[in-house]
Design brief:
One of its GO terms (molecular function) is snoRNA binding. It comes from Natrialba swarupiae. InterPro entries: H/ACA_rnp_Nop10 (IPR007264), H/ACA_rnp_Nop10_sf (IPR036756), Nop10_arc-typ (IPR023532). Keywords: Ribonucleoprotein, Ribosome biogenesis, rRNA processing. By secondary structure, the protein is an alpha+beta fold. The chain has a domain of about 35 residues. About 25% of the residues lie in helices and about 15% in strands. It has a three-stranded antiparallel sheet with strand order 2-1-3, with no helix packed on it.
Length: about 60
């Protein structure tokens, strides 16, 4: 699922706090924006195997 809310990709260097927008560029500094939601899946998840096993047992 893709989020509609986007955040300025350069906010750490150019702004005091995150600048959110619905467009593809920042309304303040015109930098590109990126998806503000974290990734739902991490391939390096150290506990993924245990969570999946627990989920299989609870069915």
């Amino acid at each position: 699922m893709k989020s509609d809310i986007r955040v300025c990709s350069a906010w750490r260097e150019r702004h005091d706090r995150p600048v959110y927008s619905l467009s593809s560029e920042c309304p303040v500094c015109s930098a590109k924006t990126e998806n503000s939601a974290p990734a739902p899946f991490d391939p390096e998840d150290p506990y993924g195997e245990y969570r999946r096993a627990l989920k299989r047992r609870s069915r």
